[in-house]
């Protein structure tokens, strides 16, 4: 068996036994600029490595969509476009060798309404700097791009980010910070959702982390 085939077989076996983190458990909220320092202070006390400063990050993100070729409106609603995100670190130092990352995030699962977190498929793939050209050649369209800067905390397997989103011209899109609590885990590890709910309770009333209903937001936007 050649090396690529062996690697593919290993990947398929890993997926079958659920050892690859392919699902993201997520809670989201926001906090005004004027109150973000209190949230950072609370997180520093709750998270690991409390004696060191939180990790800072700065990323460029571009979102591409690959739409369905169907022209019927009803079929188009049943087959939503595929969204892919290209991410590149912009923290210093940045050079031609800075790696790119291709991220696929699926639609939220329609599981138990009582589940405390949103759950969606998530895959990250390292890629070359030509990824944007490749996606364009594949027929993908650039929907939007932005930079995101903020702080990253960790509590066990949980990741907590407090970040601000900027337009490409460095103008902030709002006067608030996005707060996200997430865990990447293999399929079926729903017990992490309860751990996240308990941690989110400790951040109240500074920030309310919720299971966002994206379909409802889309309907409100229409």
TrEMBL record:
One Pfam entry name: Med18
Protein's GO biological process: regulation of transcription by RNA polymerase II; termination of RNA polymerase II transcription
Domain of life: Eukaryota
Compartment list: Nucleus
Gene Ontology, cellular component aspect: core mediator complex; mediator complex
Entry keyword annotation includes Transcription regulation: yes
Primary location recorded for the protein, binned into one broad class: nucleus
Keyword Ligase: no
Example GO molecular function: transcription coregulator activity
Subunit structure: Component of the Mediator complex.
Family the entry assigns: Belongs to the Mediator complex subunit 18 family.
Protein role: Component of the Mediator complex, a coactivator involved in the regulated transcription of nearly all RNA polymerase II-dependent genes. Mediator functions as a bridge to convey information from gene-specific regulatory proteins to the basal RNA polymerase II transcription machinery. Mediator is recruited to promoters by direct interactions with regulatory proteins and serves as a scaffold for the assembly of a functional preinitiation complex with RNA polymerase II and the general transcription factors.
Official protein name in the record: Mediator of RNA polymerase II transcription subunit 18
